[in-house]
């Protein structure tokens, strides 16, 4: 009887464990309806391109059981998108890709939003900025262009610098150039980086500080010319390595890198957040995404958890300092 009893217990425990494991596997969260992927910027820009690439990779590689729907909400320098996601507390089927307007928009516009309202998922990359001119202009170097800008700084016919939004990254960089080199631009804001570069091609502005990916296709078609990169070192990727840094080109060290990060709504369920981290890691490690980073000169920069939060805290403080120095914050 003892042997039979032990065998009964063994079988019963085994069945219980199997049932428990099965129930746990069944309980693992995954999307049950389409995922809304918010872009707080216009179409064609760097954030929009990355969001649509992620959605495409997810579909091609069957990484998500439900489709990812990209939605642009660019109003109010991205405030429309941020407030939309902030209002979806606890929602597991909404994510947002962020630029550094994650910091600049609340600081400049005083909208009722802060990045801490959202659930940080991951940092995917850091994006470069390049000083661009139209390829038909005579300016072959940054020094030649800046000399022309200085000549026209005093009058009403200033050179026009195109950028995404007002009081955002592009205008911060423009003001840094003005303050460091003693010159003046007329800053012209557009809804997104794609639109900015199109206006440079159309000669509606004299220069831009677009992200590389936003002007890459026009550069390859010989429509625009890169003059300098706003970073401590040259971009290492083969297509971009010959572009000098601003310090090399102008003798003034101006650096700026932009966030490409993913967030969820406030109080996103932990199991959903973990699913998105796993999903996005698969995207990040895919050959197609790696090629995208290289072709677009984005710096790979995967980061999650407490380290990501610490980085966000530092980036917020940096933007506050830059915007205060640039006179972009209300007193």
By CATH, the topology of the largest domain is: D-Maltodextrin-Binding Protein, domain 2
Radius of gyration: 24 Å
Return the domain count: 2
Tally of helical runs = 12
Tell me what the structure shows.
- 45% of the residues lie in helices and 18% in strands.
- By secondary structure, the chain is of the alpha/beta class.
- The protein is globular, with a radius of gyration of 24 Å.
- It has 12 helices and 11 strands.
- The chain has 2 domains: 35-127 and 258-325, Bordetella uptake gene, domain 1 (D-Maltodextrin-Binding Protein, domain 2, 3-Layer(aba) Sandwich); 130-250, D-Maltodextrin-Binding Protein, domain 2 (3-Layer(aba) Sandwich).
- Strand 6 (160-164), helix 6 (169-181) and strand 7 (186-190) form a beta-alpha-beta unit.
- The protein has a 6-stranded mixed β-sheet, sandwiched between helices.
SSE layout and pairing:
Blueprint: H1 2-27, E1 35-39, H2 46-60, E2 68-72, H3 79-86, E3 94-98, H4 101-109, E4 119-127, E5 130-134, H5 142-151, E6 160-164, H6 169-181, E7 186-190, H7 193-201, E8 207-208, H8 212-220, E9 224-229, H9 246-250, E10 258-264, H10 270-284, H11 287-295, E11 299-303, H12 305-325
Parallel strand pairs: 1-2, 1-3, 6-7, 6-8
Antiparallel strand pairs: 3-10, 4-10, 4-11, 5-8, 5-9
Helix pairs in contact: 4-12
Task: Considering the chains and any ligands shown, give keywords for the structure.
331 residues, alpha/beta, D-Maltodextrin-Binding Protein, domain 2, 2 domains, six-stranded mixed beta sheet, five-stranded mixed beta sheet, 12 helices, 45% helix, 18% strand, globular
């Amino acid at each position: 009887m003892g042997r039979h009893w032990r065998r009964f217990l063994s079988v019963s425990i085994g069945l219980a464990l199997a049932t428990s494991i099965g129930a746990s596997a069944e309980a693992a969260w995954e999307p049950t309806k389409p995922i809304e992927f918010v872009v707080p910027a216009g179409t064609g820009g760097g954030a929009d391109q990355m969001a649509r690439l992620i959605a495409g990779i997810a579909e091609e590689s069957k990484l998500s059981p439900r489709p990812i729907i990209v939605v642009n909400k660019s109003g109010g320098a991205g405030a429309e998108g941020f407030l939309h996601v902030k209002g979806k507390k606890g929602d597991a089927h909404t994510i947002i890709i962020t630029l550094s307007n994650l910091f600049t928009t609340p600081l400049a516009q005083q909208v009722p939003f802060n990045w801490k309202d959202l659930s940080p998922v991951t940092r995917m990359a850091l994006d470069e900025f390049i000083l661009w001119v139209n390829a038909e202009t005579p300016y072959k170097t940054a020094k030649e262009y800046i000399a022309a800008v200085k000549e026209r700084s005093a009058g009403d016919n200033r050179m026009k610098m195109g950028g995404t939004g007002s009081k955002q990254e592009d205008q911060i960089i423009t003001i840094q150039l003005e303050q460091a080199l003693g010159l003046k631009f007329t800053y012209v804001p557009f809804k997104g980086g794609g639109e900015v570069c199109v206006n440079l091609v159309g000669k509606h502005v004299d220069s831009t500080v677009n992200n590389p990916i936003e002007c890459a296709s026009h550069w390859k078609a010989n429509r625009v010319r890169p003059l300098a990169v706003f970073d401590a070192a040259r971009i290492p990727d083969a297509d971009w390595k010959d572009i000098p840094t601003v310090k090399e080109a102008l003798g003034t060290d101006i650096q700026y890198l932009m966030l490409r990060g993913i967030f969820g709504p406030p109080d996103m369920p932990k199991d959903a957040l973990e699913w998105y981290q796993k999903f996005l890691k698969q995207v990040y490690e895919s050959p197609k995404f790696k090629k995208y980073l290289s072709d677009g000169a984005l710096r790979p920069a995967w980061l999650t958890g407490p380290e990501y939060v610490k980085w966000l805290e530092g980036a917020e403080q940096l933007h506050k300092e830059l915007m205060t120095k640039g006179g972009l914050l209300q007193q």
